[in-house]
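Onboarding guide, step 5: your first structure request.
Type a short instruction followed by the sequence, for example:

Predict the 3D structure of this protein.
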Amino acid sequence: MGNWNSKNPQISNYLNERNIVEKSLHYLGSQHKLWGELWSKLWACEPQNKFLLETAAKWLRQHQDTPGWSFVWRILIEHPDALPESTSLNTLLQFGIQWLSGRENKDQWSFVWQILIEHPDALPESTSLNTLLQFGIEWLNSHEDKGDWSFVWRILIEYPDALPERTSLNTLLQLGIQWLNGREDQAQWAFVWRILIEHPDALPESTSLNTLLQLGIQWLNGREDQAQWSFVWRILIEYPDALPESTSLNTLLQLGIQWLSGHEDKDQWSFVWQILSKNRHLLSITEDKFLRCGANWLHKYPDRNDWNFIWKDILAFSKSFTIELVKLGSEWLSGREDKDQWAFVWQILIEHSSTLPESISLNTLPVNDN
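The system replies with structure tokens like these:
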């Protein structure tokens, strides 16, 4: 009913109710196990409602272990100017600091901790940014297998100058290196590895950029079907002069060529193809064969959002594909007028009007009336 009222406030008048959202909250009661989730839905119906804010502020004080607490708390923090007189941003941040203690195993711990980190100038006098960073470091040391470990670790790395005395950027990078070992099949592995790569001058003495690149090369093998494969491969491509002796840029490019075959349906296919296209003079296959690989993909996946990029690149690279691609582009336009790329493809075809085949002319190209 609250949802309906937010879309058509006259419903309140028809039912002789002053405010259905407030009435809904009254009937909900404060002890409902889904109070936080249901309150959030009411808030979405009528944001800035003072009664909702006042009720939520009272609820937060007494229901720290109820599901949804952190989400209600965050919403109030996002509206400091609308808070009731009895509650300030400072008060809410104090709630969050108190909530962290003893709830380190809760999934929302890192969520609350991050929000506190984002408000260093509004923290209570008894808590500083340094204190919160210390909380994060202590959490890291006993929660290596939590899915959000890398999330907390990354935030700490962003504050090298505010870390507690016994912790340095070097210390955190060492933790990241240790974390990588044995967690190669976790989705966050590539994320942590990349951040380590970005700090070559702060790595521990036992680890070098070359060492990390070797780890990345080893990781690629056997993980071709993982979503992060192209991500790791692309980063390795960016360091041709730092690769281990057993691996060269040509070796990585060959891996990319091999990956293309059998992964045409992957979202990352065009991404890998475009990187290879920039290095096509180094590829082990002929340019014509490489471009044919892209053209075949265009024929097979015309509805991919990145279709137009591959089409444009091949058209620019080789005249031998011009007639085929101009015809393909003209066919692509028909029925796709609602696509953002439509005007892009149409404009390029106009620029190639002199090469249009006899069956296609400027007059026969589809027109977008939208």
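Each response can be followed by summary notes, for example: The chain has a mean pLDDT of 88.
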